UniProtKB/TrEMBL annotation:
Residues 39-65 form the YjiS-like domain. InterPro entries: YjiS-like (IPR009506). It comes from the Bacteria. This is DUF1127 domain-containing protein.
């Protein structure tokens, strides 16, 4: 004779994150923050360059100032500066 045992659905709480997972996530956040600070310092050093050199890169001092002003301290301005330089390069090619 065959019997089937009734299945009981338990509402168990989902497992909490382990300490190792939390530390990995936190370390990734710290790495991202440090990279953005390094890139921000590099963008600030662009302001030390001559206007002719900035023009060769595809930027102007006013654009660098504006990007740095619009991004907060923990935000990475390098992507915005790269996009501006690429747009200017494309306009020169057309």
């Amino acid at each position: 004779m065959r019997t089937t045992a009734p299945m009981i659905a338990l509402d168990l709480p989902s497992p909490k994150r382990t300490l190792a997972e939390a530390m990995r996530n936190r370390s990734a956040d710290v790495v991202t923050w440090v990279k953005s600070l390094i890139n921000r310092r590099a963008a600030n050093r662009l302001l030390d360059l001559d206007d002719h050199i900035l023009a060769d890169i595809g930027l102007s001092a006013s654009e660098v100032h504006e990007v740095l002003r619009n991004h907060r301290m923990h935000q990475d301005p390098s992507m915005q500066l790269t996009m501006l330089a690429r747009k200017r390069a494309l306009r020169c090619l057309i």
